[in-house]
UniProtKB/TrEMBL annotation:
<feature type="coiled-coil region">
    <location>
        <begin position="4"/>
        <end position="128"/>
    </location>
</feature>
<keyword id="KW-0175">Coiled coil</keyword>
<dbReference type="InterPro" id="IPR052642">
    <property type="entry name" value="CC-FHA_domain"/>
</dbReference>
<protein>
    <submittedName>
        <fullName>CCD27 protein</fullName>
    </submittedName>
</protein>
Length: 177
């Protein structure tokens, strides 16, 4: 989850950068429109001058405006190319981050599934252990009863004497033989 939130934070930063670049591009387009409006205003001004003055002024202004516009267009095209390059890089990074998020989530789901399977195996083994302990207790009690019966039979035979101390299994076996 830490990796996922880190990746999501990076993705948000990249998207924020993308929005900022788009905003700058819109601003540049507005500036271009404003300059076009100024050009239109100058054209309207020249309409009121005499024809000869108008021609000279128009020619000078057009050359000047043309040079300025070419510079502006060159700058904006350069900025637009840089922004488009940055946008494509950011989109590629966002795609990679999304892929990493998906991969991380899949791994997390696999880990959870494995953990559930391990838990169920542990529970099954605990149940088996309990059953084995019960069976062992049952067998131990049967063995003890069987041993006690053998001791009773061995020492109930005529001519046998009672033991003075607690008997070991080997002593019971020798007496039985």
């Amino acid at each position: 989850t830490g990796a996922i939130s880190s990746l999501q934070r990076q993705m948000e930063i990249q998207e924020s950068e993308l929005r900022r670049i788009r905003s700058e591009r819109d601003l540049l387009q507005k500036q271009l429109r404003r300059q076009e409006d100024q050009l239109q205003a100058m054209c309207d001004k020249f309409c009121s001058l005499t024809e000869e003055q108008r021609q000279e002024e128009i020619t000078m202004m057009m050359e000047e405006m043309n040079i300025n516009l070419q510079q502006v267009v060159a700058e904006q095209e350069s900025q637009l190319a840089e922004q488009n390059k940055l946008i494509s890089e950011l989109q590629e990074t966002i795609s990679q981050l999304r892929a990493e998020v998906v991969t991380t989530r899949l791994q997390l789901l696999k880990h959870k599934q494995t953990q559930k399977e391990m838990q169920s195996q542990v529970e099954a083994l605990q149940h088996k252990e309990l059953q084995t302990r019960v069976a062992l207790e049952h067998m131990s009690s049967k063995f003890e009863r069987y041993r006690n019966k053998i001791i009773q039979i061995v020492f109930s035979v005529e001519g046998s004497r009672d033991p003075v101390a607690e008997l070991t299994d080997n002593e019971v076996l020798e007496a039985m033989q």
